[in-house]
């Protein structure tokens, strides 16, 4: 056949260490129909400071693949919430082949068409809290690329018609497809009049949605006569692909005929007629994608280049148990993003008769509904059982309802069909099922009532069970509980939700308490972070005693908002917020930086109020630009230190000796204060992690407040004229000066010579 190659790529994204599904990078691709091979080219490279990160350490990258919905991953091996079904996915780990770049390749033969999702992340780290901009961070960028090769002009088989085919010696296979409409219980493909040099050296394979693989349902026509391949309970509203493959090493031309028959389960004694007036009656799409594809209302062609088509007799007999029951629709009510309720007509109470199942359909929209959680709840009305030992079984299956000829069967799986089982009885009257990131399309729920006997379950007689049924779509499982936050995330135009856990809780619904913080630990950490701000009381007292009232007001502001910010910032249940979190955070950061600013300005002994206003405006602007940026926070502080250095240098030049002049001021106040402040900055920048945050940050509070108490200068006394110093006998002249200046406690510019005394 003719192949067409398509190419798709995505923008590189920075990967993050795994903490929860909210920290992964998700990529969305769409694979077209009739694709025979899909190749993902996975490119990963390092960056550091805008250049190649050759010095960055090698960190493994895990990539997950899943069709239809995002992968439900669990790299930390945490526990899932109760009644949660975990769909499978494929994982791939990339290792580094070059110092700053690596490439991985992932091939999928005959992939399922539709949406495919890739999730990538780095391994979990130690949770170090780094200051933004302090050093060049190593970034790991991931870029997936997709190359697909698809077949065009695949021949279409029409139910009840024969297609003749001749397979030349250089050809090994022929591929066909047939569309299976709703209410089809059986697909039968048969090879007729097979003629070759060695009998019928053909393999017959069949698969839903994509071309068959080596492990697909197959039949060897050499060993089976007639060569018929039947498939029960096919997926509704999907293409089925039929591959007729020649045995290896068979010479010559092989000619054969292929026909397909679909059994209508709404009329079990009849197969679908060989001719329908329109493709709408066959429930087919408007275009088939084959040579001479039919438009709406066209009839099957009478001839094609590869063979002829003509009706064949249809048997009226069909296997037992192929009857299907009416499917009751549900009403979709959208409340919000991933908040959808499915209401049952004449519900929510459902009557389950003893002689037949009750079948319901839940339609999930493509792309829109796969990023949430599908929830199902069954509650049995025990009073409706009339004392009988009745159990109501529910089977939830994708794309086709499960019907079984064995009325006593309690399984929801077949060889080609997998489902989820729910059950309620008089003892356990409530059953729940949660499916995170469900595949879109039609989900069918079949409810059956069976009575328990000594020999197992048997059909009940004259007992109609009543069940309360609730089906809805939610963003997260139980809204992530009290120890998590449900976050709505977006990747390009795709929305999905995930839990972000706190206080040591983990898991898909923040229900795994293996590493959870106890209540006592949460209370201790909250008290440490809040009460450590009491260390600002001594600086406030020193400032008030030294008549630094503005500085004292700033320290009180900082102490107040730091206390209540940390009371509101706690991850557990010991939380107390007097304002919105963002307001408390801004005021805490502003108060901390303003405390540094006013302390440095006071050390410079500059009185203009404009400097205080300038600092408040600069710091507010910096915090609004980037609250966690290093230079936005460090810049104003360095500017204040520069002002102090200029003021001290001017005094030193004017007085011609160092300022402050006394060694006691340097030894007992300035040096200890500077060392304490430097130790606090080092702890904050290099030692603080998520695990030790509560006590390292409390030490930071103590050290910063203690350094302010050392660095704040003493009270500046007024420079009024002083009385004459006592005369010393034998001295002709006596020079009287302000002693406060000698201690470096007042501005030397306002100090004056008091008097010149003569003896």
UniProtKB/TrEMBL annotation:
Protein's cellular compartments: Cell membrane
Primary site of residence: membrane
Transmembrane segments: 516-536, 548-567, 631-650, 666-687, 693-712
Domain EGF-like: 499-510
Keywords annotated in UniProt: Cell membrane, Membrane, Transmembrane, Transmembrane helix
A Pfam family the protein falls into: DUF3522
Membrane disposition: Multi-pass membrane protein
Annotated Gene Ontology cellular component terms: plasma membrane
Similarity comment: Belongs to the TMEM8 family.
Protein name: TMM8B protein
Organism: Pygoscelis papua (Gentoo penguin)
Gene responsible for this protein: Tmem8b
């Amino acid at each position: 056949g003719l192949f067409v190659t398509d190419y798709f790529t995505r923008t590189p994204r920075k990967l993050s260490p795994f903490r929860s599904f909210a920290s992964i990078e998700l990529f969305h691709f769409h694979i077209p129909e009739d694709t025979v091979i899909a190749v993902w080219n996975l490119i990963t490279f390092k960056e550091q400071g805008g250049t190649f990160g050759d010095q960055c350490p090698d960190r493994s990258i895990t990539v997950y693949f899943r069709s239809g919905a995002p992968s439900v991953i669990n790299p930390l091996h945490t526990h899932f919430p109760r009644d949660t079904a975990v769909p499978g996915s494929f994982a791939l780990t990339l290792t580094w082949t070059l110092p700053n770049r690596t490439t991985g390749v992932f091939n999928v033969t005959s992939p399922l068409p539709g949406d495919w999702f890739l999730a990538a992340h780095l391994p979990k780290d130690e949770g170090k809290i780094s200051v933004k901009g302090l050093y060049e961070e190593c970034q790991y960028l991931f870029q997936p690329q997709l190359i697909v090769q698809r077949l065009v002009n695949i021949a279409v088989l029409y139910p009840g018609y024969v297609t003749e085919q001749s397979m030349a010696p250089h050809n090994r296979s022929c591929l066909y497809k047939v569309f299976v409409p709703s209410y089809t219980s059986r697909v039968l493909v048969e090879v007729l009049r097979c003629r070759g040099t060695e009998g019928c050296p053909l393999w017959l394979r069949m698969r839903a949605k994509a071309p068959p693989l080596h492990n697909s349902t197959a039949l060897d026509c050499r060993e089976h006569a007639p060569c018929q391949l039947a498939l029960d309970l096919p997926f509704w509203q999907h293409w089925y692909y039929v591959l007729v493959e020649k045995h290896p090493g068979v010479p010559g031309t092989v000619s054969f005929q292929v026909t397909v028959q679909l059994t209508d389960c709404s009329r079990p004694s009849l197969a679908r007629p060989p001719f329908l007036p329109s493709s709408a009656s066959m429930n087919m799409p408007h275009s088939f994608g084959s040579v001479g594809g039919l438009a709406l209302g066209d009839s099957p062609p009478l001839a094609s280049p590869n063979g002829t088509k003509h009706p064949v007799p249809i048997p009226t007999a069909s296997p037992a148990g192929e009857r299907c029951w009416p499917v009751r629709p549900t009403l979709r009510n959208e409340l919000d993003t991933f908040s959808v309720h499915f209401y049952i007509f004449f519900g929510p109470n459902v009557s389950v008769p003893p002689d037949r199942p009750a079948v319901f359909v839940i339609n999930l929209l493509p792309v829109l509904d796969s990023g949430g959680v599908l929830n199902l709840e069954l509650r049995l009305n025990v009073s409706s059982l009339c004392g009988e030992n009745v159990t109501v079984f529910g089977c939830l299956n994708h794309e086709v309802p499960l019907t079984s000829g064995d009325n006593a069967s309690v399984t929801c799986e077949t060889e080609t069909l997998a489902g989820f089982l729910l059950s309620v009885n008089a003892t356990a009257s409530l059953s729940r099922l949660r499916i995170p990131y469900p595949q879109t399309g039609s989900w069918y729920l079949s409810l059956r009532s069976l009575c328990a006997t000594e020999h197992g379950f048997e059909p009940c007689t004259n007992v109609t069970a009543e069940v309360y049924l609730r089906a809805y779509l939610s963003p997260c499982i139980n809204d992530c509980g009290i120890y998590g936050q449900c976050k709505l995330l977006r990747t390009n135009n795709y929305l999905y939700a995930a839990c972000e856990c706190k206080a040591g809780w983990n898991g898909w619904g923040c229900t795994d308490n293996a590493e959870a913080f106890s209540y006592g630990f949460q209370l201790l950490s909250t008290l440490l972070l809040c009460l450590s701000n009491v260390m600002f009381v001594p600086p406030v007292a020193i400032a008030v005693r030294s008549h630094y009232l503005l500085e004292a007001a700033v320290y009180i502001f900082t102490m107040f908002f730091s206390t209540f910010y940390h009371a509101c910032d706690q991850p557990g249940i010991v939380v107390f917020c007097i304002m919105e979190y963002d307001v408390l955070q801004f005021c805490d950061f502003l108060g901390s930086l303003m405390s540094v600013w006013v302390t440095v300005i006071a050390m410079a002994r500059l009185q203009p109020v404009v400097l205080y206003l300038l600092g408040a405006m600069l710091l507010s602007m910096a915090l609004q630009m980037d609250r966690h940026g290093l230079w936005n926070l460090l810049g104003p502080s360095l500017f204040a230190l520069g002002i102090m250095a200029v003021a001290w240098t001017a005094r030193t030049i004017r007085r011609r000796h160092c300022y402050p002049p006394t060694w006691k001021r340097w030894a007992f106040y300035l040096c200890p204060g500077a060392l304490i402040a430097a130790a606090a900055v080092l702890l904050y920048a290099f030692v603080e992690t998520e695990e030790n945050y509560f006590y390292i940050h409390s030490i930071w509070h103590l050290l910063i407040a203690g350094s302010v108490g050392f660095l704040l200068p003493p009270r500046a006394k007024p420079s009024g004229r002083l009385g004459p110093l006592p005369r010393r006998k034998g001295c002709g002249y006596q020079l009287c000066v302000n002693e406060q200046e000698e201690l470096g406690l007042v501005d030397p510019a306002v100090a004056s010579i008091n008097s010149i005394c003569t003896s």
